[in-house]
């Protein structure tokens, strides 16, 4: 166990050290922006993993919370002032709003069976999208608006480190959350809700807790996303954002927390690389088609996601190793028939 | 002897199907009440109805004279009714330890003592303490499921077909464990294996086509060839 923890800690600190050193070794602005996007979407995907991976809830409305965070920060920075204090305040207000709305939506919808819940979350998300489109005096509708980020974040590298620190803190907090007694009950709900009820747990309470935690974290990711672009429009509430979070979680590996981070890196990099190829090869102008193919292949060959598949391989390897230790080396196929 | 659980003319519908059409029985404190009947008679549905998983549509269910007919499942469990379902309901991704911890509603001295007791009853669980539930054998899963139901000072435990799909040697172990558990709690047992049921049970209730057709002392049923032949196909 200790060995396992130390190996995990070693990998964690090694990766952290790489991401801290990287901007000083490679001064590419594109790389810095790409990594910042990966970290932000990593936070969003981790929040989705709390729903899908740990509680077994499929939501099609997760973009709603991302959008709430993005709009709260953008509107406050534009209409009030672009100071750090307003930025922090906007994050807190966004999180409170998202938490409150996810609590209400969760309470109203989580009683339903999974597919009805998924449809209702889609409807709620659509409602917020229409609200963002029609409330033009504040949101400027589909056109969106630009705003000034706090002076501290004018330097991309400072913002990169802020996002990296946020990612680390949220990862550690969520890791603690999913390994807490509440986290264990969420896993129990995912695996067998009826059984969890018959152990004496009101599963609705736990599903609402998961929904609120996921909503709050998604709102935080939205706030960071808005500042990274210094622009916001209704696309932050579109279905694409939810689908991205879903794909990142599935490709990386559901119920692993690290998987969604990896999924975010794969998808963000694939989007970047495929759209970049379009400059030289016109066929890649339709990069989204290739992206779709990539996704289909990943689901067919890695249904458990990257981390899930690696874990499976590791268990098989360890099982074989144990078997060899107890029974000695297995005879070759040929020898067996002889 | 105090009556713990009473089912009075209980009816249950699942979708358009009328599954239970009048189930009556009493479970008394310190006894093992066995529900017997052919496949599809409604024994499992009876346990699910008591737990509120398939709520009763008519009749009444009382636990310690308090009606639980309309109580949600988690409240029924909190009242002190443990449930060991037919498919064991193990959380495959959680370790044996985590499965036990999830089931614990309190982590006080009494609960930890009970944990110690069940680990002595099922030493395999101690051996595979850090192993994922999904990697256990059928018998070990059954033991874990029973241990989880026992961990919370349950006054009554409902056990659904504990011998199903298990090797005879494992069935023997499970039976011994139930006999031990009987000293500390009351049990309602659904069991197809009549030999096992007759060795553990104090009283029986025969269910046929969703109705209670006979109840009494297990000793009487053992010698009642006609009843056994008519409702259980034995003899």
Question: Any overview of this molecule?
Answer:
- The complex is a heterodimer of chains A (about 350) and B (about 240).
- By secondary structure, chain A is mainly α.
- Chain A has helices at about 1-25, 30-55, 65-80, 85-110, 115-135, 135-140, 155-180, 180-190, 195-200, 205-230, 240-250, 260-275, 285-300, 305-325, 335, and strands spanning about 145, 230.
- In chain A, strands 1-2 form a two-stranded antiparallel sheet.
- In chain A, helix 1 runs antiparallel to helix 7 (about 155-180).
- The radius of gyration of chain A is 22 Å and the shape is globular.
- In chain B, the strands form two sheets. Chain B has a six-stranded mixed sheet, with helices on both faces. Chain B has a four-stranded antiparallel sheet with strand order 2-1-4-5.
- In chain B, helix 3 packs parallel to helix 6.
- The interface of A and B includes residues 184, 191, 192, 194 and 195 of A.
Write the layout of secondary structure elements.
The complex is a heterodimer of chains A (338) and B (235).
Chain A: H1 2-25, H2 29-55, H3 63-79, H4 84-109, H5 114-134, H6 136-139, E1 145-146, H7 156-178, H8 181-191, H9 193-198, H10 203-229, E2 231-232, H11 239-252, H12 258-277, H13 287-301, H14 305-327, H15 333-337
Antiparallel strand pairs in A: 1-2
Helix pairs in contact in A: 1-7, 2-7, 2-10, 2-11, 2-12, 3-4, 3-10, 4-10, 8-10, 11-12, 11-14, 12-13, 12-14
Chain B: E1 3-14, E2 17-28, E3 32-36, H1 43-51, E4 56-63, E5 66-67, H2 73-79, E6 81-84, H3 96-103, H4 109-121, H5 123-127, H6 138-150, E7 156-160, H7 168-182, E8 186-190, H8 194-200, E9 203-208, E10 211-217, H9 218-222, H10 225-232
Parallel strand pairs in B: 3-8, 3-9, 6-7, 7-8
Antiparallel strand pairs in B: 1-2, 1-4, 4-5, 9-10
Helix pairs in contact in B: 3-6, 6-7
